[in-house]
From TrEMBL:
It comes from Ignelater luminosus (Cucubano). PANTHER family: CENTROCORTIN FAMILY MEMBER, CENTROCORTIN, ISOFORM A. Residues 2-64 form a coiled coil. This is Uncharacterized protein. InterPro entries: CDR2.
Length: 104
């Protein structure tokens, strides 16, 4: 009877030791995963900042391009108006790149 108890105690001690080793390994793995998560979160924040900066640059570029386009259109219209003697005929002519050099 005591011999059976000794065997059970030894089995339990071995199982306890194995569980302690697994627990230690799991703690190390959790610590490693936590560090990886923190690193990835920082990288995501950094990339989000880069995205925000690029969106600002893109919006600035679009505004400048729109201003430039509006300015070119305005200059072309003004040139056409100044080259036209008869306002009614000018509105029917298509705008061409060399319209500023043509006489009416």
């Amino acid at each position: 009877m005591y011999e059976q108890l000794d065997i059970s105690i030894q089995d339990l001690e071995r199982a306890n030791h194995r569980l302690a080793l697994e627990h230690s390994a799991d703690k190390k793995h959790i610590k490693s995963l936590t560090a990886t998560i923190e690193t990835l979160e920082l990288k995501c924040e950094e990339l989000q900042g880069t995205i925000d900066d690029l969106n600002l640059q893109l919006n600035t570029y679009k505004r400048k391009a729109l201003k430039s386009s509006d300015s070119i259109t305005s200059r072309t219209v003004n040139r056409r108006k100044s080259n036209c003697e008869d306002e009614a005929n000018c509105h029917n002519r298509p705008i061409s790149p060399d319209s500023s050099t043509q006489g009416t």
